[in-house]
Design goal:
The complex is a heterodimer of chains A (547) and B (368).
Chain A (H helix, E strand, L loop, with lengths): L1 H22 L9 H6 L3 H34 E2 L3 H9 L6 H12 L4 H10 L8 H26 L3 H9 L4 H30 L2 H5 L6 H12 L4 H27 L16 E2 L2 H18 L1 H10 L1 E3 L8 E2 L2 H9 L2 H29 L6 H9 L6 H12 L3 E2 L4 E2 L5 H25 L2 H9 L4 H29 L5 H4 L8 H8 L6 H25 L11
Parallel strand pairs in A: 1-2
Antiparallel strand pairs in A: 3-4, 5-6
Chain B lengths: L2 E3 L2 E4 L11 E5 L6 H9 L10 E2 L2 E2 L10 E4 L11 H11 L4 H14 L15 H13 L5 E5 L7 H18 L3 E5 L2 H7 L2 E6 L2 E6 L1 H6 L4 H6 L4 E11 L2 E6 L4 E4 L11 E6 L5 E3 L9 E12 L3 E8 L2 E8 L12 E6 L4 E5 L4 H4 L10
Parallel strand pairs in B: 3-8, 3-9, 6-7, 7-8
Antiparallel strand pairs in B: 1-2, 4-5, 9-10, 11-12, 11-14, 12-13, 14-20, 15-19, 16-17, 16-19, 17-18
Helix pairs in contact in B: 2-3, 2-4, 3-4
The chains are: A mainly alpha (547), B alpha+beta (368).
């Protein structure tokens, strides 16, 4: 317990506190000067407004996409509903910065759509310019969060709550507004806040689109270009953490207040939905197909790009090739290899730590459980950039015996960063799994003569192994495409994982093909893990992406 | 009416007429179709056969929100995002009642169910019994033409259930509102109803007042489901006037005083005797004109208001409940006794279910 707390403090709490400390101290002592300075700098003010705006708009547009799809998929019964539910999760399997590259090709200044617009109408639309592009990419990537959480909330509404309203004379839009909508709000709000946090946190997308007037890129640029001692970088980090913490706190608070959607549960099979036909079916299918079509554009784009040798100023590539795959699999195989190594190690660490922490939280009667819970949940609110900055600050000049240098000079720092950032997932998965195991199952084993260790091995562990694996898979796949902290912590290019490889390749025109091929590999990895996770969670699709 | 789910008939060939002001109960085990029947009346399920008539008008085509039949759900269906006041006011708002009238009527409704002062509470702050009252007030406040209650007491604990049963009874009799009640609890059904329809496998097996159902079950299912019954198989030896003499499979003759069921001499029938109709005497004591079966006590349990006995008579177990036991002898396991009961307390049901209810899942078209 003490060792565990020490470990988490060293790699989560302490780096965070160091960042905070740098931001509020000068040579002599504590000061709020730097923090207040933040608001006097036009660039920072603009970055703050832009970040908040991007988060808000991504949520707003994401709602327009996600809520109707959620409603269709829960409330209506029609052919193709399964396709809708499956495709709806696909945007999540493409890392947002990969999606950014793909959308450039399709919607960018010289992308497919604008070339067509130029040819036909002599004009073009700046879809992908600046903040617009960032918001567009993030909306398309994160709207499934809103869709999945809304759908779950909707499906959990006891049908008798709506039937009662009908019985008392309510129907149609009034029924939706007075009963259905308020009851599905908790899930919807949770999805929105999750999206908001992720958007503010996202470093890869703005960097790929070369738009830096946002908080995350500002923190990154300050530290990487001006230096590790630039106080302003730390100040931006503190602002980022505060925003995330407030959002997370609001989500918790709101969900805690309104846990009611699942309190009562009827028996009639409302999940099946109402059969629809005719005009209504046509409208539903049309809307669904349109929305999914748009949200799957990035996948298509990246696939085509990965197969092309030359694709510029033309609708489609002029020359196709498999050379890009040859490049990443034979000439620079370390990107894929590193990813598998780092992500597997991180997932392994997370599974072990997650199981222990969950067990301590639920079964242990040790002092400091609340502290443990708090620290283990904290990474949800720490943007990757901030954690990376903290690590650089803490471990930079500190030689670790055996490594022959500081931790930040070794790839181990990446594994640690991934493991810590994704720890909340395995803790929560294990916690949920362990919660299902009634303590009497363990007591029965002990009553029959098994000691604590054997009880854990023979009874507890086999019963929670599903949750552990699921949590590990989530940890693995999100680590495999992590860019925010990777980009700052990679010691040397040959130690970089896929995400870093894509970022590096995409810097040059000739690298776009291999970069896209790496993107396809990333999509396949994440897609496979999502599929496995859903299998383990027994078809509760998208459980991995809920608050 | 009939309602089919896939190939199975949930409700089949049910035809009932319920009078204004009645408290009518659908009684049956789970899965017998009683809730489906109720949902068809409320408009949440469309009948595959037949029609629902309300005040002389077919309402099949009316959606639930236009039927004006108030329903109280088994889960109460209290909206968790509204206060008690908002819950009760919902139906009035849908009916565009003025604000002042809503205030007044909600207040009255809550007073009626003893919840005055609870207007501002959230459902999560209410006990099960209070939620139940809110659900009742919410439905009653719109003064529906019919009140539908779907197992409303099943989620309450035993003490509260008994209390709510009495309150419900008084409320319904005071308001005189036509009520249809669904339950699997025979005690509730007997205590509350003016009439009961006992249902099994989608069909109504017997319809009648609580006394008729309890005292004169016409089918084996009713005798067994409503209260406990001792069932004795036998063949009719003699049918004279109002007395039926039956040679039971125990080898003893038993006389029954009410040959309501057609029972030809020589035909096989089942005799039903309620445990509380039985008395236990020491073996030698005379039984007067009553039926008498000799046996041995297998178990005896003193329960205060009654003593429950199991008596073995020729390898058949009979259950006897000796009520008001004060001053009566308490027989012990192993005692030889005579089980006695009056011919008036013997009922007769056919050994096999009557033809019309034997195969309730056969599809019969052309009903209604």
């Amino acid at each position: 317990m003490a060792g565990l707390l020490l470990l988490l403090t060293l790699f989560i709490l302490y780096p965070l506190l160091r960042v905070l400390f740098v931001a509020v101290s000068d040579g002599q002592g504590l000061t709020l000067r730097y923090l207040l300075n933040f608001f006097d700098r036009p660039l920072f003010r603009e970055a703050l407004v832009n970040s908040l705006g991007a988060g808000g708009l991504a949520v707003a547009f994401g709602s327009l996409l996600g809520v109707p799809l959620a409603y269709f998929s829960v409330r209506y019964q029609f052919r193709g509903k399964l396709v809708l539910q499956t495709l709806g999760v696909l945007p999540l399997v493409i890392p947002p910065f990969v999606g950014a590259v793909a959308l450039q090709l399709i919607l960018g200044r010289s992308g497919m759509v604008n070339l067509l617009l130029l040819r036909w109408f002599g004009t073009s639309v700046p879809f992908m310019e600046g903040l617009t592009g960032v918001i567009l990419v993030q909306t398309l990537h994160y709207f499934p969060f809103i869709m999945l959480n809304t759908a779950v909330s909707l499906a959990n509404i006891d049908p008798s709550l709506e039937e009662m309203a009908q019985n008392l004379g309510s129907h149609g839009w009034r029924l939706f507004r007075r009963v259905t909508l308020p009851l599905m709000l908790p899930g919807y709000v949770a999805g929105c806040l999750l999206t908001f946090i992720r958007v503010i946190d996202d470093l890869g997308t703005p960097l790929m689109l070369n738009y830096t007037k946002l908080l995350a890129p500002q923190a990154y640029l300050r530290i990487t270009t001006i230096g590790i001692d630039d106080v302003d970088g730390y100040v931006v980090c503190v602002i980022l953490v505060v925003l995330s913490l407030v959002s997370l706190w609001a989500a918790r608070k709101y969900l805690g207040l309104s846990e009611y959607a699942t309190v009562q549960r009827g028996t009639t099979g409302a999940e099946i939905g109402r059969p629809i036909r005719g005009m209504k079916l046509a409208v539903v299918l049309l809307i669904s197909a349109g929305m999914l079509g748009i949200s799957l554009l990035p996948h298509l784009g990246i696939l085509v790009l990965s197969l092309s040798r030359i694709w510029s100023f033309s609708l489609l590539p002029t020359i196709y090739t498999l050379g890009n795959y040859e490049e990443i699999l034979f000439r620079t195989p370390h990107f894929v290899k590193n990813t598998l190594l780092y992500a597997l190690l991180a997932a392994g660490v997370d599974i072990v730590l997650g199981a222990i922490i969950a067990w301590l939280l639920l079964r242990g009667r040790v002092f400091g459980r609340n502290l443990l819970d708090a620290i283990a949940t904290m990474p949800l609110a720490i943007p990757g950039v901030v954690l990376a900055v903290g690590y650089l600050r803490v471990f930079h000049g500190w030689d670790v015996p055996g490594l022959g240098g500081p931790l930040t000079g070794s790839w181990v720092i990446l594994v640690i960063a991934y493991a810590m950032r994704r720890l909340p997932y395995t803790v929560r998965a294990s916690y949920a799994a362990l919660q299902q195991i009634h303590v009497s199952l363990e007591e029965a084993a002990q009553n029959l003569g098994a000691n604590q260790v054997r009880t854990f091995w023979k009874v507890t562990f086999p019963l929670m192994v599903g949750g552990l694996v699921a949590g590990g898979l989530i940890s693995f796949m999100t680590s495999a495409v992590e860019l925010s902290s990777t980009i700052m912590l990679v010691p040397r290019i040959e130690m970089g994982p896929i995400a870093y490889g894509i970022y590096v390749y995409m810097q040059s025109a000739v690298g776009r093909g291999p970069g896209a091929a790496l993107g396809v590999v990333a999509i396949l990895l994440v897609g496979l893990c999502t599929y496995l996770t859903n299998r383990i969670f027994a078809g509760r699709s998208g459980s991995a992406f809920r608050v | 009416m009939g309602k089919r789910f896939g190939e199975t008939w949930a409700v089949r060939a049910v035809s009932l007429s319920i009078r204004v002001g009645e408290f009518y109960t659908f009684l049956g085990p789970s899965g017998c179709g009683k809730t489906t029947l109720l949902r068809m009346i409320a408009g949440f399920a469309a009948p595959d056969e037949g029609s629902v008539w309300l005040d002389g008008e077919v309402v099949n085509a009316l959606p639930p929100w236009k039927r004006d039949v108030g329903m109280v759900f088994q889960s109460y269906a209290i909206w968790p995002h509204m206060t008690v006041f908002e819950n009760v006011a919902f139906g009035l708002r849908e009916r565009r009642v003025s604000r002042a009238d809503i205030e007044r009527q909600v207040g009255e409704a809550l007073r009626m169910v003893n919840l005055e002062g609870m207007e501002g509470r959230r459902p999560s702050q209410l006990s099960g019994g209070q939620q139940q009252r809110v659900a009742l007030a919410r439905t009653l406040v719109v003064q529906p033409r019919v009140l539908l209650l779907d197992e409303p007491l099943s989620n309450l604990d035993a003490r509260l259930r008994a209390q709510m049963r009495i309150e419900l009874l008084k409320l319904q009799r005071d308001l005189g509102i036509t009520t249809i009640y669904v339950t699997h609890d025979q005690e509730e059904a007997l205590a509350l109803s003016t009439r009961i329809a006992v249902m099994s496998a989608g069909s109504v097996i017997q319809e009648g007042t609580p006394r008729e159902i309890y005292e004169a079950p016409r089918e084996r299912f009713v005798a067994e489901f409503v209260g406990a019954s001792n069932l004795l198989g036998g063949a009719v030896r003699q049918a004279t006037g109002d007395t039926l003499t039956v040679t039971t499979d125990l080898g003893v003759e038993v006389r029954a005083a009410r040959p309501s069921a057609a029972a030809p001499e020589g035909g096989r029938i089942l005799l039903t005797v309620r445990p509380e109709a039985m008395d236990l005497l020491p073996p030698g004591e005379p039984a007067d004109h009553r039926n008498r079966l000799e046996g041995r006590v297998v178990a005896s349990a003193f329960q205060g208001a009654a003593i429950q006995y199991e008596v073995e008579v020729s390898e058949t177990l009979l259950r006897a409940s000796v009520t008001n036991p004060k001053g009566k002898r308490l027989f012990q396991r192993g005692d030889l006794v005579a089980v006695v009961f009056a011919p008036e307390d013997v009922g007769i049901v056919p050994e096999e279910p009557r033809a019309e209810s034997r195969e309730p899942s056969v599809v019969r078209s052309g009903q209604d």
